[in-house]
Amino acid sequence: MNRRESLKALGIGTLSAGVLLEACKPNNNKLAEDNKDTGAAADNAGRQPFEIERDKKLNADKFFTDHEMATITVLGDIIIPKDARSGSASDAKVPAFIEFIVKDMPDHQTPVRGGLRWLDLQCLNRYGKTFVDASSSQQIEMVTEIAYPKKAKPEMAQGVSFFNRMRDLTASGFYTSKIGIDDLGYAGNAPGKWDGVPAEVLKQYNIKDPWGDKW
Length: 215
What we know:
The protein has helices spanning 3-9, 17-23, 37-43, 49-60, 66-79, 94-104, 109-127, 136-147, 157-174, 178-184, 199-204. The protein is mainly alpha-helical.
């Protein structure tokens, strides 16, 4: 299953508007390139000093444990795997994006951390291993039970809510990164080329070509 098929199967139609808007704020998305001093001036253009300092503090702080980050990485790459077209969620540095977002938007902290613990407890009860330590087939089996809300069992409700949030965060992070934008093939606005009114249109309305005597 390729990326687009997997995203369609997982039910991605629209991203969380709040997450996506927040992800597009200046300097929030530090995914596709490393932050280097040479690009700092451009990144901070038009920003207030308190905004720059706030982001520096958020980037310096650490919220997730190493184990939680490893879990987010594995889960993100299941949601958006690497394929022949482009890289995976972790290639686009989505885990770092999620780390930043939960610090920038604290309402995500308890649901995400709670969901990660729920996922580990489920895997420990089923397989005797945490999600990260489970086999690939076990990880997919676990994810399948919470990735399809309409098919999920009632007792999986917490997992479904957690996965929906992680899916939105992962997709928002990926598709606001350079890798994700290249994957979409979005070129942005580009200047058009005007060659004048087509000759057949001029002839149809019996209008003389303003650029010459030829139709």
